[in-house]
Amino acid sequence: MSTEEHILVIPESVINSIGVIDGFESDVDRFLLPILASDQLSFQPRTPMETDPSFKQLIPYVLLEWTENDGTKKLFTYTRGGGGGEKRLHAKRSVGIGGHISREDAADGANPYSTGMHREIEEEIQLRSDYKETQEGLIYDPSNEVGKVHLGVVHRFVLESPEVQSNEADLAEGGFVSIGELKADIEQLETWSQLAIKALY
């Protein structure tokens, strides 16, 4: 019996029936509410989904924002390490925490999207700060093979304190970096991080 992970996907046709997402889309509710309510959402085996652009994998993408006493806004930033996961993204800096929603996230009637998002956060980091959460936008970037099969949902957690630590070797060199520095070095960031920073800051 195969134990392949089954991940949450939506047919591209459902997204297209709502509108076009190109890069960063700030009108979250217009797209996300009908997507999450759609009877076409399903959990599919991950391997075929990675090369099938007719389905989009829903990926929570959480930005952890913290402001210094002097007003300097910073984001938690890390380098995608050499561990498992998405080999096509390695060695790029990222400001987004998150990953696939798995079939297990829907157990016991739970909301799979929210459950999966918090599971991914807990797997990747230790977050000891209180925070306020907002949904900021959607990211779709079909300019590369990874982007064609993923739809990112950008969440912003505004933290009260910078108490964040990486849990995984995959998240190397984790720490808070000012928005100014990130913008100055934006080419070092993966595409989704570039799009999110340009849209939100």
Order of helices and strands: EHEHEHEEEHEEHEEEHH
Biggest pleated-sheet summary = 9 strands, mixed
Report the end-to-end length measured between terminal Cα atoms: 47 Å
- Silhouette: globular
Beta-strand fraction estimate: 25-35%
Attribute tags:
201 residues; alpha+beta; nine-stranded mixed beta sheet; two-stranded antiparallel ribbon; 11 strands; 27% helix; 35% strand
Offer a concise description of the structure:
27% of the residues lie in helices and 35% in strands. It has helices at 12-18, 28-37, 46-49, 112-124, 145-148, 179-184, 191-200, and strands spanning 6-11, 23-25, 42-45, 55-67, 73-80, 93-94, 125-127, 131-140, 150-159, 164-166, 171-178.
Description:
The protein has 201 residues and is of the alpha+beta class. The chain contains seven helices and eleven strands. The chain has helices spanning 12-18, 28-37, 46-49, 112-124, 145-148, 179-184, 191-200; strands at 6-11, 23-25, 42-45, 55-67, 73-80, 93-94, 125-127, 131-140, 150-159, 164-166, 171-178. Strand 4 and strand 5 (73-80) form a beta hairpin. The longest helix has 13 residues, at 112-124. The protein starts with 5 loop residues before the first strand and ends with a helix.
Topology:
Layout: E1 6-11, H1 12-18, E2 23-25, H2 28-37, E3 42-45, H3 46-49, E4 55-67, E5 73-80, E6 93-94, H4 112-124, E7 125-127, E8 131-140, H5 145-148, E9 150-159, E10 164-166, E11 171-178, H6 179-184, H7 191-200
Parallel strand pairs: 4-9
Antiparallel strand pairs: 1-3, 1-4, 2-8, 4-5, 5-6, 5-11, 7-10, 8-9
